[in-house]
Amino acid sequence: MTKRYYGGDKVKGGAYVNLRTAEFTSIPKGGGTLPGALQARYIRVPAIAVVFAGPLMGLAFVILLPLAGVLAIPVVLYRVLQRVGREMGRALVRGAVPGWVPGAAYLVRRGPIQKAEPPREAELPEKADVLAALEAEMRRQRRQGKQ
What we know:
Number of strands: 6
């Protein structure tokens, strides 16, 4: 098993790979300190592996980057169609369901609506009689309030 080193460790010269970021770090022959915090983990890589791994990683980058763009197009189209479909469904539901008003009472009527007949002229009291009765009631209440 390969020995692990951490950021800030003093190491001898060579090539080291950060296991989290896959970044190569080279330390001069005299030795030095690995960059990064204590959470950064490194392993020492032989020089011949660095010589072969560098070009292979570049080749993978050149091949996979355009492929990633081509593969991203269907994902983007799916999300756009999903959003459009969701909005269309909501519009259909809004049209089918009546609007709800908070605080409004939706009471159900049973049976046909019966229209009330307007009162006949003979049944209505005279305006003067009604005013006289109101006037008398107001006088009575004022007298009671003064006592």
